[in-house]
């Protein structure tokens, strides 16, 4: 942005470009950082920082063609220009094949950056450069197995939308890059600026990094028959309701036995398992974002009692609801 050229305290963000890069991996975070800079200016300095100066760079400074066919002209080559505060490596076909020249350039530049970020399969490039050795990391679910297999020194956390480990942050596929960028903005400029950007982009302020890449709905298959799809949606929207097989079968206008068999056949999970996933996911979100007590959360999620919710958390997450909330609220890193 022209308005922050030469401004003291601005954080330089350099986005790596290459042929077949995923365009949304680039534009999603760029829109977040740029929007945050506008919001910081509009706040009259309330954020304490002027925001970001976003630049793009390809290996040789030449234009690149994204996987969707768009041509992007970078600002510079990776070898030129000042060292960025944040170096961001998006995903795409390039990092999957790990071009040697690109890997070498990122390996050389990364140690001088204050923060290293990847989106989607960009983590594969960072791993190839040895920049994730001994660190926790994630990537798009399609590449988690490859990352773990090819780079056993990386501690892959497949069921996360983003992972922070020191100054290195990796995120899952596509829109998770927006979630991570919003988390970085909140860390750098405060919650109000991040909220302004999220509202402008019409996205959640923050899906926490420890949220699963798949929601309960995505983890299961979508039923083929409309009555069963409607039941799936009803479960998601009414976790505190009576979600017994008998009650759900009545909504689908099927006998309980027929409903249970059809639901499992079409979604891949039993009705009880699906309800369990939805309630757990809903409880996690409330514990992360709401101020209500554990007893209130347990009632609003359909557990009935705090003890029932506690057993579910211990079974699936290995921790109690109270400890889960404590861990979530004490893992926000210090500002860079």
TrEMBL record:
> Which key words are in the record?
Transcription, Transcription regulation
Q: Does the keyword Transcription apply?
A: yes
Transferase keyword on record: no
Q: Which PROSITE patterns match?
A: HTH_ARAC_FAMILY_2
Question: What Pfam families would the database entry show?
Answer: DJ-1_PfpI, HTH_18
- All copies of the HTH araC/xylS-type domain together span 229-327
Protein name listed in UniProt? GlxA family transcriptional regulator
User: What is the native source organism of this protein?
Assistant: Streptomyces cavernicola
Q: What is the lineage of its organism?
A: Bacteria, Bacillati, Actinomycetota, Actinomycetes, Kitasatosporales
């Amino acid at each position: 942005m022209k308005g922050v050229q030469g401004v003291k305290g601005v954080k330089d963000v350099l986005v790596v470009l290459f042929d077949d890069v995923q365009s949304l991996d680039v534009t999603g975070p760029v829109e977040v950082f740029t929007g945050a800079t506008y919001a910081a200016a509009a706040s009259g300095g309330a954020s304490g920082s002027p925001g970001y100066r976003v630049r793009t760079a390809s290996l040789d400074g030449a234009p690149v063609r994204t996987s969707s066919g768009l041509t992007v002209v970078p600002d510079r080559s990776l070898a030129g220009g000042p060292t960025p505060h944040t170096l961001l490596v998006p995903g795409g076909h390039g990092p999957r094949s790990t071009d040697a020249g690109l890997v070498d350039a990122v390996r050389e530049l990364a140690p001088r950056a204050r923060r290293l970020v990847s989106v989607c399969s960009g983590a594969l490039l960072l791993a190839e450069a040895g920049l994730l050795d001994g660190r926790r990391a994630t990537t798009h679910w399609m590449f988690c197995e490859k990352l773990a297999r090819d780079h056993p020194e990386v501690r892959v956390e497949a069921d996360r939308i983003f992972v922070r480990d020191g100054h290195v942050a990796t995120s899952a596929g596509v829109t998770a890059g927006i979630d991570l960028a919003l988390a970085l903005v909140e860390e750098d400029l405060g919650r109000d600026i991040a909220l302004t950007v999220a509202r402008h982009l019409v996205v959640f302020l923050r899906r926490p990094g420890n949220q699963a890449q798949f929601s309960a709905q995505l983890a299961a298959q979508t039923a083929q028959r409309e009555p069963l799809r409607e039941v799936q949606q009803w479960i998601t929207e009414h976790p505190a309701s009576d979600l017994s097989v008998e009650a759900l079968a009545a909504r689908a206008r099927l006998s309980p036995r027929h409903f249970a068999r059809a639901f499992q056949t079409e979604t891949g999970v039993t009705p009880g398992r699906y309800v369990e996933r939805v309630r757990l996911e809903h409880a996690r979100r409330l514990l992360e974002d709401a101020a209500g007590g554990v007893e209130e959360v347990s009632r609003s999620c359909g557990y009935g009692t705090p003890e029932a919710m506690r057993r579910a958390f211990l079974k699936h997450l290995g921790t109690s609801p109270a400890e889960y909330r404590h861990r979530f609220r004490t893992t926000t890193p210090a500002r860079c």
